[in-house]
Fold this protein.
Amino acid sequence: MGWAALPTLPMRMSDLIHRQILPLGHRPKLMQLQQVGKVFEGSVTALHDMSLAVHEGDFISLLGPSGCGKSTALRLVAGLSTPTAGRIQWEGGKGAGDLGVVFQEPTLMPWATVAENVFLPFRLRGKSLAAVKGEIDEALSLVGLSGFAGSYPRELSGGMKMRVSIARALVTNPRLILMDEPFAALDEITRHKLNTDLLALRERIGCTVIFVTHSVFESVFLSDRIIVMAARPGRVIEEVTVTAPYPRDEVFRTSPDYAAHCQVASLALRRAMGEAA
Amino acid sequence: MTATDLSKAPAANPLTPDREEARRLRAARIDRVAKWVLPALVFVIMIVGWDRLVVWNEIPHYILPSPGKVIETLVKDWAMLFDALLVTLQITLMALAVAVVGGVGLAVLFNQSRFAEMSFYPYAVILQVTPVVSIAPLIFIYVDNRMAGLLLSAWIVAFFPILANTTLGLNSTDHNLRDLFRIYGASRWQRLRYLQLPSALPYFLGGLRIAGGLSLIGAIVAEYVAGTGGIGSGLAFRILEASYRLNAPRMFAALLLIAVTGVVIFAGLSFLSYMLLRKWHESALKRET
């Protein structure tokens, strides 16, 4: 089932752009949050003075306790709410298909088949199903669901629904994919599998990801940059860089290198919690 | 660390069901049969009881006809009753169609415009809570066309459940899906077409099943109020007319037709609902136990 095990598709068949990921420090800038803040109803500060530069190919995790503003930051980047301070700037402006989003729930339309769900971003841009059939097929094969195009969401397991959601997020070839605790509701075995598969996927299409999580282990396994945040008011405390090279797999998960990085991130998180208390 | 292969452990023969399993299967079988046999049995007992009651007490047929007499009348008066049934059925189905158009149309309008909802929703409620019997006489004063009057009365009764349910459905869309549509820059129309209307479908179909029964009731009540005979008289008029002549068997025969019509409408709409939802909605799914 894993898409890691799939044979590489010949390039001519491929409809999605496959970008090259450059090493950290050599990546062109994609977008930037400049001293962004969000205050709800004039009193509750959800996010205070957050600055973050996102580069092409970054896998950024926002790590922190509940109430640290990580989901608020994601909603601001998604354009679902507007900042009350600062600004968000996209290099070269923001286009219609620049964003892909995966929520904590799979958020599929129950009345539509898997293929129709993945088709949604294109349908809303007025494209016909026939015109983007190639992209949809490839996105489904990338998440290992080639045989399920005609299935309805209710026929799938929780992990498979999440894969559909990921396929929908990447089908438009977005410059940035936002993931808001996408695997939090899954069991640990499925979560590990999806973590591994997500990295294999990134290796193949070179997407840029901002990933919200409250798990130290998940953030270290997945990302090369971890933004540690604190609560009340939600703010960035520090950034941890995970230098371990990709591809990472189950061997990395049990390596001393992984444990060492987890310790660094845990300590940073504890400092963040300490500051809040 | 060691791992032991447990897959070669001996297993019980899976083909012989244990006693617990056998009892469960037997209970399921009895359930399946009882579902059909019990209502049929009760029906037969009621019919036989009714027949004996009439025969043993020598009740005259103009007070209470026997079931046989009712069927006999149904066959004898079939031409007249069938014509009446067609009239009633026509009004019922037209009222239902107008109720669907009006109910869904108003629900979409209210959903798209807060101001329209604020302005007109109270009147929809007032129209609904006022008994149609009290409005119908007025309608027949102002509306010359008898057919239009009947239709209007039946519509007033039938449209509200569709309006109320569809409104609820349009407002019950998943919040994450709404966010997703916003992120992808969906227009108002796209959101309605691809998100809100499909979400509202199960609610609408629930309202439709209620409206089906209500439009029949509305048509019958309006006929009673309209009263006047002549061409194009429906079942309610036939019942009234038969009651003036103390023709109880015909009253029962017409009543039987009305009841059967109601059941057929409900069954038809339930089937439609099942066909539209069977692929995805919880209400139409069978669960393995």
Observations:
- The CA atoms of residues 139 and 167 of chain A lie 5 Å apart.
- The longest helix of chain A spans residues 256-276.
- Chain A has two domains: 27-98+175-277, 109-173.
- The interface with chain B takes residues 78-80, 96, 99, 101, 103, 105, 107, 109-112, 120-121, 123-125, 152-154 of chain A (CB under 8 Å).
